[in-house]
Amino acid sequence: MDREKRKEQILDCAKKLFAEHGYYQAQISDIIRDANIARGTFYRYFTNKKDIFVTLLENFYERWVSEVSLKRKMMDLETIPPEEHFRHRVQQSLQFFAGDPYLSRIFLRMGLGLPPDMENTIKRLENQILELIVKDLNLGIKHNNIPSDIDVTVTANLLIGATLRIAYYYFAEPAKQGGAVKDVEAITDEICRIVLPGLFLKHTGAK
Amino acid sequence: MDREKRKEQILDCAKKLFAEHGYYQAQISDIIRDANIARGTFYRYFTNKKDIFVTLLENFYERWVSEVSLKRKMMDLETIPPEEHFRHRVQQSLQFFAGDPYLSRIFLRMGLGLPPDMENTIKRLENQILELIVKDLNLGIKHNNIPSDIDVTVTANLLIGATLRIAYYYFAEPAKQGGAVKDVEAITDEICRIVLPGLFLKHTGAK
Amino acid sequence: MDREKRKEQILDCAKKLFAEHGYYQAQISDIIRDANIARGTFYRYFTNKKDIFVTLLENFYERWVSEVSLKRKMMDLETIPPEEHFRHRVQQSLQFFAGDPYLSRIFLRMGLGLPPDMENTIKRLENQILELIVKDLNLGIKHNNIPSDIDVTVTANLLIGATLRIAYYYFAEPAKQGGAVKDVEAITDEICRIVLPGLFLKHTGAK
Amino acid sequence: MDREKRKEQILDCAKKLFAEHGYYQAQISDIIRDANIARGTFYRYFTNKKDIFVTLLENFYERWVSEVSLKRKMMDLETIPPEEHFRHRVQQSLQFFAGDPYLSRIFLRMGLGLPPDMENTIKRLENQILELIVKDLNLGIKHNNIPSDIDVTVTANLLIGATLRIAYYYFAEPAKQGGAVKDVEAITDEICRIVLPGLFLKHTGAK
DNA sequence: AATGAATGAGCATTCATTCAT
DNA sequence: CATGAATGAATGCTCATTCAT
């Protein structure tokens, strides 16, 4: 268990450094300095640089799956109004990114030219996010809440792009320009206000 | 003029490689191999690696200014309906990114940890895009087309995030998953369909 | 302590190479080959090429201060005849250069165009040597052993030039032309023979 | 003849640059920039970098032969008192170096590690100077003006070292510390004052 | 387990020289 | 003769990884 703790500590230092300097510019030397361990010790916990980066990404991925993806399934579409359902998801996503700004930064500003493993992990997460939203949209269509002739892929990308961008802008940038960090709640409201009218069909009183 | 041509050729090769492998992984050796020039020749045209990358970025920046930013000002808000105005801008932006997939890829997947000059160039372009949209939104509010209580910064980021993401997804990814490359026109319609209703006030018949 | 030993060994190899080929022509590749270490190992001990060269120079400088400059102060001008005093200094200087021919060679044939740090270290040593001699001459003048109307700067330069040249000729040149390496003692005698009569006032019997 | 002029001009620029930055740090690029000629033009006048440097050195060498070495032979040892003879030589040498500070600087601060040709040219000049002085000293001994038991090589090196050092100090250093540039005449007097008494035998009244 | 000295492939950059125009 | 674009061998330095202690 002590070993696990140490590993966590190294991961934390690495996360911070990767978030600040990116994969190539964050060096093993920096990590072991910040983690206060010897060079060789690092390699007792991670096989190589790629490994620690992928570990970080996988953690992020798993957390996303459990905190956003799985939770969403639990929500009962039957009882909750669809707009409220949508709202919850946006809020959950923003909350997730706000919860770990360093990892968000790493994920949201992933550069080109990373080793294939990493690219794959990222692609995997991105695709899963995309698919989840597409599934949601299709569900909305099936339930007659969303018009059946929208392009779900474009729409899903629109929603993802908007959400990630806002998450990056408000939670992952080091020096925030707009003064105080915005409230997740308030941002969620704003997003819904713009997107909901075009996305959901108006429910006429009598159903 | 011949010199200009050669420089262009080197830039083209570099662009492709940066788009594929990113800044750090695209090596001078690759560039000179692809451009079929000697090592020293490269340094006759660019002072260093950073220089060629920044040049690429600046080109992109200038083209954006002239092709999107400037053109937008010319549109007459008085005669064109505001929704149509918005539609044009989205279309222009998508068209711009579609026009140079390589550069778009470089720009849209810019990694962390780049030399400060580059970060600045990127930040500059991003901020200018943001400001332009904010200005547009404020104009819409002033003209009573957009509700005055929206958060313009959140909304602008939403629009940028959505547009860039879609541009990246459809035009800058090397292996397209969804089959044929989508039509700019069609995507524009889709975006407008989702966003317009929530963004613009309904004009009641009697004005 | 082992680390110190290794550093010393690298310095020794570098000294030899710098003495033979000068700063620019002695390459890191040569040093690591002669020192039988890997490229990276060199940079564990010295931050760069300049560093190892300056280290060599500083060593030389410090040794000169302790072996020649400080020792000289200890000599009692009251009890020792001034000519004898002068003789000691010449001998000490020659001994110093003879003691480390490689470093002497580096120091005595320092080329133009070296990085400023090095130039400064050299200038510092040269000036200190000059000042020490000027001080000595002034002391001789005060004690009425040296005529008060000599130009101390010209004289000091004359003595330095003569000494360094002879040191270089007899101790620092790789292929000795004149057969056997001369004895420090004998050379000292010769120098004194030429210079003393013109430098020191004749002490008439009754003082 | 125009060609000769152009060559001279290039040599002048190169001389200045070599004097300032040394052989390795003075680049062809600098020379052609200062000489205001094209890259290729340089190579029409000199086969390579070494060539122009050696040319400079050879010029210096030849000038020394004609201005110092040859002139000295013409002086009649029979009619001129030996001390006066010595004085002339010192003055001539100083004058020579004072006459071309740039070249003096190049010659007097020649670094280690130069291509063999150059080393040879330098050695040749140095040896010739040495030999000339040795010959002079031997002549003095033969004429009974100089004690026969001095070590001519040590003495010659002493004289050369002293003279070159003073020449460098007063004429070849860019920023002179001691205020105004000293007069050749005055320096000569000073040197003679120190060295003559020990070098020359006292001529007793009756010869 | 922990350490940190040693490693060496790899990279950006320089600069004297060539040669087609 | 003059030009200057092109060349590429050579060099200093970096940094992820290994391994003996």
Summary keywords:
homotetramer; 75% helix; Arc Repressor Mutant, subunit A; DNA-binding; mainly alpha; Tetracycline Repressor, domain 2
Structural commentary:
Four copies of one chain form a homotetramer. Chain A contains nine helices and no strands. Chain A is mainly α and 207 residues long. The mean pLDDT of chain A is 88. Chains A and B meet through helix 1, helix 8 and helix 9 of A and helix 1, helix 8 and helix 9 of B. Chain B binds a DNA duplex (21 and 21 nucleotides) through helix 3.
Give the CATH architecture of the largest domain in chain A.
Answer: Orthogonal Bundle
CATH fold label of the largest domain in chain A:
Tetracycline Repressor, domain 2
Count structural domains of chain A.
Answer: 2
Structural class of chain A: mainly alpha
State the total count of DSSP E strands of chain A: 0
Written as H for each helix and E for each strand, in order along the chain, the element string of chain A is: HHHHHHHHH
Shape of chain A: elongated
Binned strand content of chain A = under 5%
SS element count, helices of chain A: 9
Instruction: Tell me the radius of gyration of chain A.
Output: 20 Å
What multimeric state do the chains show? homotetramer
N- to C-terminal distance of chain A: 57 Å
Low-confidence stretches of chain A are none
Main beta-sheet strand count, sense and barrel state of chain A: none
* Biggest interface, chains and residue tallies: A-B, 46 and 46 residues
Report the average pLDDT across residues of chain A. Answer: 88
